[in-house]
């Protein structure tokens, strides 16, 4: 913070003032961090937060599987119509969509890792 | 029995004009969207106008909602996700206030129409796509290619990952819409049982206390669902945005 104190001869008075101010700000920040440290308040907060997120996770499961199957069925139907390969697009993409739906559910339940990660 | 679907009907209130022969109408849905936005505006502006060091009721609500959304973003998308705070906060507040206004009798529930929730979900989906491609370029496709998968099943996995990605806006929108629709229909059906049983004489009136108790309990449940669905929508928005910010991990 006190980077411009050295090579300013004319404004020495002002930069010294600024340095004192920044030092005071820093000490204030340190004291605030000490006060905020992991206390009973932080614990109570995380305890109350886990409750809505567990319920939210439950609500997520309800539609994930259906959405995957629907997308697969729609893409299969569209490919059938577009390329005239009648039942095959629907068969293949319905199965792929079902797999995607199962992956969605596993991710929503926290069993599987998020997309793009290692495992 | 009264029609439980009647509450979701859209009426025209005023015609604003015509675009290409199509009527642009101000409907009851638009009216309640406007009420929702004005309500949020009043809550936040009214809450922050006092600027008290010790917050009053309104300021407390405004500050709590800010901190709640900021915490949600920080825990799911990290510090970089905070640049999407305006988007997530707007979505959360709009859905929450629209859901809660919809619980008041004789009001219209904006979020019980799939066109509304689908528009919101597509907004998030397109934001993720645009931001993901502008920030990561083609590296965004790493999202669809998990590491450590044997090469012979990789094409299959990529297909499944793409389908899983495409199914996001559907589950995102259907969840909110279906919960709101189902909850309001259930409330209406049980409420109409009260009047039906009440018309059956003295035993009917005693019998009607059962659905009445159930309606009271369901209203409490719907209040929880109204909040939770807004929270789920916001947290999923954060998770999807997180994929756009860090597609590799």
Structural account:
The complex is a heterodimer of chains A (119) and B (249). Chain A is mainly alpha-helical. Chain A is 77% helix and 0% strand. Chain A contains 3 helices and no strands. Chain A has helices at 12-36, 40-83, 86-108. In chain A, helix 2 packs antiparallel against helix 3. The radius of gyration of chain A is 29 Å and the shape is elongated. Residues 1-10 and 39-50 of chain A have low confidence and may be disordered. With 249 residues, chain B is mostly helical. Chain B has one domain (6-245). Chain B has helices spanning 28-49, 57-77, 85-103, 114-136, 154-166, 168-198, 202-245, and strands at residues 12-19, 22-27. In chain B, strands 1-2 form a two-stranded antiparallel sheet. The interface between A and B is medium-sized, with 31 and 37 residues.
What is the topology?
The complex is a heterodimer of chains A (119) and B (249).
Chain A: H1 12-36, H2 40-83, H3 86-108
Helix pairs in contact in A: 2-3
Chain B: E1 12-19, E2 22-27, H1 28-49, H2 57-77, H3 85-103, H4 114-136, H5 154-166, H6 168-198, H7 202-245
Antiparallel strand pairs in B: 1-2
Key phrases:
heterodimer, A: 119 residues, mainly alpha, 2 domains, elongated, disordered N terminus, B: 249 residues, two-stranded antiparallel sheet, 2 strands, 69% helix, globular
Give a quick summary of the entry.
Chain A has 119 residues and is mainly alpha-helical. Chain A has helices spanning 12-36, 40-83, 86-108. Chain A folds into two domains: 1-37; 52-119, no CATH class.
Helix/strand/pairing category of chain A: mainly alpha
- Going across the major beta sheet of chain B, what is the strand order? 1-2
What distance lies between the first and last C-alpha atoms of chain B, to the nearest angstrom?
54 Å
Give the helix proportion of chain B (percent range).
55-70%
Number of strand segments of chain A = 0
- Which class do the helix and strand fractions of chain B yield? mainly alpha
Q: Give the overall average pLDDT of chain A.
A: 73
End-to-end CA span of chain A: 44 Å
Please tell me the total number of domains of chain B: 1
By oligomeric state, this entry counts as heterodimer
Instruction: Give Rg of chain B in angstroms.
Output: 22 Å
Spatial shape of chain A: elongated
Main sheet: strands, sense, barrel of chain A: none
Helix fraction of chain A, binned, reads over 70%
Give average pLDDT of chain B, whole number. Answer: 88
Low-confidence stretches of chain A: 1-10, 39-50
Rg of chain A, nearest Å = 29 Å
């Amino acid at each position: 913070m006190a980077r411009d104190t050295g090579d300013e001869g004319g404004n020495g008075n002002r930069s010294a003032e600024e340095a004192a101010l920044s030092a005071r700000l820093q000490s204030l920040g340190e004291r605030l961090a000490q006060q905020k440290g992991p206390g009973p308040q932080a614990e109570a907060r995380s305890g109350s937060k886990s409750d809505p997120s567990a319920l939210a996770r439950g609500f997520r499961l309800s539609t994930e599987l259906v959405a995957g199957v629907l997308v697969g069925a729609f893409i299969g139907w569209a490919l059938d119509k577009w390329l005239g390969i009648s039942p095959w697009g629907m068969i293949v993409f319905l199965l792929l969509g079902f797999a995607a739906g199962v992956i969605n559910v596993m991710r929503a339940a926290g069993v599987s890792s998020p997309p793009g990660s290692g495992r | 029995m009264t029609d439980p679907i009647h509450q979701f009907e859209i009426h025209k209130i005023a015609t604003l004009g015509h675009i290409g022969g199509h009527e642009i109408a101000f409907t009851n849905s638009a009216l309640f969207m406007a009420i929702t936005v004005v309500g949020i505006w009043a809550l936040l502006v009214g809450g922050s106008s006092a600027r008290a060091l010790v917050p009053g009721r309104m300021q407390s609500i405004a500050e709590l909602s800010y901190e709640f959304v900021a915490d949600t973003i920080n825990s799911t998308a990290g510090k970089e996700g905070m640049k999407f705070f305006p988007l997530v906060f707007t979505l959360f507040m709009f859905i929450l206030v629209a859901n809660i206004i919809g619980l008041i009798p004789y009001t219209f529930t904006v979020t019980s129409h799939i066109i509304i929730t689908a528009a919101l979900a597509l907004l998030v989906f397109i934001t993720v796509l645009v931001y993901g491609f502008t920030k990561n370029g083609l590296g965004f496709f790493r999202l669809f290619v998990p590491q450590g998968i044997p090469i012979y099943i990789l094409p299959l996995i990529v297909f499944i990952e793409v389908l899983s990605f495409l199914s996001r806006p559907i589950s995102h929108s259907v969840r909110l819409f279906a919960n709101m629709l189902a909850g309001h229909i259930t409330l209406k059906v049980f409420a109409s049982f009260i009047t039906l049983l009440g018309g059956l004489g003295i035993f009917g009136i005693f019998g009607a206390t059962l659905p009445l108790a159930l309606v009271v309990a369901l209203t409490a449940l719907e209040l929880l669902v109204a909040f939770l669905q807004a929270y789920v929508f916001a947290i999923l928005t954060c998770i999807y945005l997180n994929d756009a910010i860090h597609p590799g991990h």
